[in-house]
Amino acid sequence: MRTTGDIMTGDFSKDDKIKALLWCNRHCCLCGKACGSNIEVHHIVPIEQGGSDDIDNAIPLCFDCHKEVGSYNEKHPIGSKYRAEELKVRREQIYEEQTRHLVPAVYYGVTQQLPDGSKRQFPDVGFYLRHHGDSLPVKVKVILDILLAGRSLGHPDAEYYGGGKLWHLNPRFGHMGHFAIPKEAAESTERLDVKASVTIIDQYYREHKLLPVGWVYMRKENDWYFEPSEPE
């Protein structure tokens, strides 16, 4: 935010404007039409109403939609105003439509299996992450939560399994890592879950968050079964 005399003016950084225009592929994030150079990056919540210059407050709009969004008169309401929440949801729909081709099939999971067919000795646990496409490389943020009887014991590693470092995935490339289950959980007979929250970051630096899923440990079998819903 800048101040000129007694007037506050706001603008987005150059990098954020470029990201917003790349993410929408220069399509209006309200009507969806291709705009070319006839597009503006609008503040969803105006600066004078407490809005910020953060990219989350930005929405690329064509000239017509920019005018319509900004012309609603609260004192003489006619029709339904575009609310900030609606604009953000619509913007994310357009961003997703225009960037989904940048996201490859990524497979990941918790396992005791080793490449040679043997098994890891619990509480050592394996985690694999693979790029199954021939498209562009991506970066991946992995957050694993260990749950004992529904109670979180935190991340096994703050960097690779706590989102601190990004995993680099080239086409048809994979990683096999491992981590240790805390002693409290390893010695318990209560239900043990590992919840995975994975975010794929495309070449335009847009984050694509996958739905969280989990794996439940079977102590007798020294193996895991997949839990498709979010562990509680």
Write up what this structure looks like.
- Strands 7, 8, 9, 11, 12, 13 and 14 form a 7-stranded antiparallel beta sheet that branches. The chain has a 3-stranded antiparallel beta sheet with strand order 5-6-10, with no helix packed on it. The protein has a two-stranded antiparallel ribbon with strand order 1-2.
- A hairpin with a 2-residue loop joins strand 1 and strand 2.
- It folds into 2 domains: 100 residues, DNA Binding (I), subunit A (Orthogonal Bundle); 125 residues, Immunoglobulin-like (Sandwich).
- It is of the alpha+beta class and 232 residues long.
- The protein starts with a strand and ends in a 5-residue tail after the last strand.
- It is built from 4 helices and 14 strands.
Strands, total number: 14
The geometry reads as elongated
Q: What name goes with the CATH superfamily of the largest domain? A: Immunoglobulins
- From N to C, what is the helix and strand string? EEHEEHHEEEEEEHEEEE
Q: How are the elements arranged and paired?
A:
Layout: E1 2-4, E2 7-9, H1 14-24, E3 39-43, E4 58-62, H2 63-70, H3 84-99, E5 106-111, E6 124-131, E7 138-148, E8 151-152, E9 167-169, E10 174-180, H4 183-186, E11 192-201, E12 207-209, E13 213-218, E14 223-227
Antiparallel strand pairs: 1-2, 3-4, 5-6, 6-10, 7-8, 7-9, 7-11, 11-12, 11-13, 13-14
